[in-house]
Amino acid sequence: MKKLALSAFIGVAALSASANQHTLVFDGNNDINGLVRQTSTDKKEWVLTQDFSFTEAGIDFSIKNSTPSDGGFALVNAKGVGEGLVCFSDIASTTHITPVVDLTVPGGKISSVKVAMSGLAMASLELDFGGEEPLLPELEGAVYVWGWSDEEGMETVSFTWPNKYYQRYLHWIEVTYTEDLGGKKECGLAFNETKAEAIIGHEYTLPVLSNPNNLAVTWTSSDEKVATVNSSGELTLTGGGKTVISAGTAGNADFAPGNARYELLVIPVASNAKELSELAPADFDRVYIDFPATVTFPYTSIAYIKDEEGNAACFRSTVNDNSTSSSAITIYKVGDIIPAGWTATNVTQAESITWEGIPPKVEEQTTVTYPEVESVSPEDVNRVVTFPEMIFTTTTPYGNNKVYGKTPDGKSYEFQNTYEIQTYPAGTYSVTCVVRYAKSGNTVYFWLAPISFGEPGSGVADINVEEGESRYFNLDGTEVTAPSAGLYIKVTDGKAGKVLVK
Question: How would you class 356 by CB atoms within 10 Å of its CB: exposed for 0-12, middle for 13-18, buried for 19 or more?
Fold first, then answer.
């Protein structure tokens, strides 16, 4: 078989208008034959298997490592490119694997197969479908896609590839095929849509089933922890996640058995930031935000927020109002209230929980004060707090350099100046900072990112001003000589109070 372009593949597939077409998806959300879903991108944490199989939509799928080794397969749900059925080979010769995929439609014919993968060294990776010459891929978005076709069709199609030195993610396989109907007519079951979304507690619209031959239908849900379905096809949402809703028929004397299905994404609802953090990031791509969020610190594309109970979270904006640079997207101020009623998308990065999609329109603002604390723990991640006294024996941190500060009782904390705040000589300061965390392998650690330094124990009420004079300060204590629109602390005649400058 010769190398062929995807345009040729698409042309052949288009000739099979009466054929079924189904996509086997390996996005880490499916419960594939009990294969354990794994949420980490750290290969040290993966539980690998040498082979597994399942049947879906009349297609028998199996994959095995034909070169038994320490490598193998894992279903990884880590979002983005690092998501799918990972085919893992380490650099050691004992862990090389050779995946072999078998696709079978018993009694039927497979006319075309489309495979999507990502990973290292993909452009030159060749998939061997048993022909004279392996196939090369074409880049489609963030994945590489191989296309195979055969006009006569085959009951079983097999393909393999060399997987030495690399880990590669198999995202989906699209199969076009005809089934053996035993001389009967096709049942005709079909949905008008193949995907649907629903938010728990909100109205939603589902795909409509077409049953032109009035056949008896049985309804099922692949994951009843997400949704159940009754004999009429009506749903009850039971939790966030993905499930496949199927309508199947056993057929009759004239019509063959068959089924139709659609994928349902049920979006969970977070009524506060604590619930949001508990939902992320392992199992859910999207969450409906049902609480107002107050901005405690904005920086470029990031907004740290708190809810009405003081729980914290981190959001990333995709809207750029103030700059033509995609790296500078500060559209919020401290105290801005982001109203409830929007859907956040999980954009977890570096094992940290971040959500994006904040509505850009903010109409309310409130006063924000940062709690003074003597210590913090990982439970305080994403909170903005103030340490009244923090002792630095060296210059305060610059950039990503690690510097350790100590509280008067001897507790030591790692500081990284990731927000490019001015540095100061060694000494004791009142430090306002964001509590952040990261993960390296199996180790989770947190650090403090300063956003302002001040004199320990001093407040704006202690600043001397002459009678009748007024001085203005940002909420972090930085003096402003010419305040513009915003919220400030005004000091007059020894008294301090918050004022809104318009």
Answer: middle
| Phi and psi, residue 114, nearest 5° | -125, 125
Kindly give the residue spans of alpha helices, DSSP state H, lying in 250-315.
273-279
Cα 394 from Cα 366, distance rounded (Å):
37
CA gap 264, 70 in Å, rounded: 36
220 vs 205: CA distance, rounded Å: 18
502 residues of the chain, pLDDT tens digit each: 333 333 222 323 333 334 688 888 887 655 565 566 666 666 777 788 888 888 887 889 999 999 878 888 888 876 545 678 989 887 766 678 999 999 999 888 999 999 999 988 899 999 999 877 899 999 998 889 999 999 899 999 999 998 887 889 999 999 999 877 778 888 889 999 988 999 999 999 999 999 999 999 999 998 888 999 999 999 999 998 888 898 999 889 999 888 888 889 899 999 999 998 887 554 567 889 999 999 999 887 788 999 999 999 888 765 444 334 444 445 688 898 988 998 887 655 444 456 666 776 677 889 898 999 999 988 899 999 999 999 999 999 988 788 999 999 999 999 999 888 888 889 999 999 999 987 655 566 789 999 999 888 644 444 444 556 777 776 556 677 777 766 667 777 656 666 666 5
Question: Where are any strands of DSSP class E within 256-299?
Answer: 258-267, 269-270, 286-289, 293-299
From residue 340, alpha-carbon distances to 180, 305, 361, 373 in Å are 52, 13, 12, 29
| Alpha-carbon torsion angle 17, 20, 26, 30, nearest 10 | 140
CA nearest neighbour of 260 among 239, 246, 277: 246
Question: Structure pTM?
Answer: 0.65
Q: In one letter, which amino acid is 460? A: V
Query: Could you tell me the CA-to-CA distances from 387 to 127, 380, 450 in Å, in that order?
Result: 58, 13, 10
CA atoms within 13 A on the CB side of 483: 21
Nearest to 198 by CA among 164, 162, 168, 234: 234
For residue 274, what is the DSSP state? H
Q: How far apart are CA 134 and CA 324, in angstroms?
A: 45
Chain centroid to Cα 10, Å, comes to 31
What one-letter code names the amino acid at 1? M
Going by C-beta distance under 8 Å and a sequence separation of 6 or more, which residues neighbour residue 288? Answer: 199, 200, 202, 267, 268, 269, 270, 342, 343, 344
